[in-house]
Amino acid sequence: MSHDQGLQLVSSKEASDALLTHFLDINLFPEIFSQSIVDYIKCVSLEDTTKQGIISKCNDYLTKKKDANPVLTQRAIKIKQILEPCDKVKDNELSNLIISEIDITGDPHLKSQDNKQEGDLSNLVIEEVDVADYM
How far is Cα 84 from Cα 55, in angstroms, rounded to an integer? Predict the structure, then answer.
């Protein structure tokens, strides 16, 4: 496959293979596709050998530094973060975090379904977050 011809794909399997093989080729996948590539890799189920190959490509690209395209650098960093397991976080590394649960039911500052009055915190969004995802 030459860059002059572009990609000529017949099936979705070929398209997937081409994307996973050439995701750091700015000529085939320009900047406009960066977020789509990252989202695809988040969603697709990959075998461990494929994941390791992609991580290896990202590491190779990130270590060569010279003539690095900033778009591809960011793409490689994001993809590497998605695929690398978060085994670097150990319990003792979380010692500086305060992890607690708070019961907010019945708080008078929140807007309730029964009481249509706006409370001080009526626009508060409460979400459970897994800290290991952000490490």
Answer: 7
Structure tokens at 104: 């907010």
Q: How many domains does the chain have?
A: 1
Confidence of residue 64 (pLDDT cuts 50, 70, 90): confident
CB count, 10 Å around CB of 23? 23
Q: Is 57 part of any domain?
A: yes
Range of the domain at 32: 12-83
Count how many Cα atoms sit within 13 Å of the Cα of residue 43 in the half-sphere of its side chain.
7
pLDDT in tens, 97-124: 666 666 666 666 655 555 555 555 666 6
Residues in Cβ contact with 41 at an 8 Å cutoff, skipping those fewer than 6 apart: 20, 23, 54, 79, 82, 83
How would DSSP label each residue in 38-104? HHHHHHS---HHHHHHHHHHHHHHHHH-TT--HHHHHHHHHHHHHHS--TT--GGGGTT--------
Instruction: Report d(CA 99, CA 101) in Å as an integer.
Output: 7
How many other CB atoms sit within 10 Å of the CB of residue 114? 5
